[in-house]
């Protein structure tokens, strides 16, 4: 298993032309050969010299891998609509249900169109002088991408159709932006959300995806002579050696920080702390949790890009880490609050999903359980104690679960990947494809560097975008609109009719 995804166009080197050999000159037919008295000699037959050439590695596409990636892509869409929409929708008050559902839908629609237009090329092409941070514009509008182009997977010589990879990564861009909405729910303007959905991925998400997941690919890595070029051509966080199998930094820390920044810039809800703000439909939230869990199988196991044992490892890890997160959060609530809540256990399940995301293809099942058990109580504290101490209004605890849980998972990945702890190790193609692991300190430091860059990039970039949104649209609705509810005032609809 590699340390990151590997989207590289399938262009193979052209074999060198064979050497040109001049044919012997034939004398004219009327030429008279001189008569020479010489002893008869045996004819000498020259040995044919054949230059050995190293054959170029040909990419092969397996229908099973392609089918798995098609299914995974649909599963991730299921996570967003209706999964995330119902999870978030159940947590807001009934007067804001339509608003939340509308925001998730419009962000997803914008995300898909923008990804095809400019997002994919900014994330998954060479960025020239800025390649450490962002891709270039060689594939704007998917220029050059068609049914014949391929993308390498994690194995030397194995590929999937590039259009399938484009669609799979498109769903990641959509759900990351949609996750941010939970931090500003119940007061963010619809048109402010629209502007945010256009600007934030350009400033934050596309560069983050490039920094974490862009590199030269397994064919290039299989030749030790390419080691320096491989390192020089990679995204910044990939070059640290940081591991992120399916988006702990790119998706979860990124969206958690953006949600926190948005909550701070837009300000608290009018009724925050002055009156109870309760979820209006925990049934919807549990349905959303289940859809997220199912869809997350495609999110994590699909990030393997192949249908093999590593996809199976990511699948079982996604099951058990989620279960451990729900268990540990519920037990912590029972210990400190005397009553385990459905909302708490559902939140713990999501925290487990978040924590295992960067480690899904690296940890062993026992390591995944440990991550889930650890992250539950930590996120519980972040969503209650820490939030109360600092006084910010992160409406649906995006930072507390995705931001904090993503940090725990990203750092923990550096530990649970170790083969000595049942982890899968890291495949090193330059040394015959063996699983390697340097040491805990080295890997955890690499993880910390990746987390640090993510927090800094997302914090600064998100602040810029939210300030622009606030300047252009006002950012949040008026107090009377917030009081009456966003559904009727912004959309002229109601989720429920008595």
Instruction: State the helicity in percent bands.
Output: 55-70%
Q: What's the N-to-C terminus distance?
A: 55 Å
Instruction: Please report the number of helical segments.
Output: 16
Strand order in space, largest sheet: 1-3-2
Question: What is the name of the CATH architecture?
Answer: Orthogonal Bundle
What do the pLDDT scores average to?
90
Record field, number of beta strands: 5
Unreliable stretches: 1-51
Oligomer: single chain
Proportion of β residues? under 5%
Number of domains: 1
Report the sheet with the most strands, covering strand number, pairing sense and barrel closure: 3 strands, mixed
Q: What name does the CATH topology carry? A: Ammonium transporter fold
CATH homologous superfamily descriptor: Ammonium transporter AmtB like domains
Q: From N to C, what is the helix and strand string?
A: EHHEEHHHHHHHHHHHEEHHH
Question: What is the highest CATH level, the class?
Answer: Mainly Alpha
What overall geometry do the principal axes of the alpha carbons give? globular
Structural class by secondary-structure content: mainly alpha
Radius of gyration: 28 Å
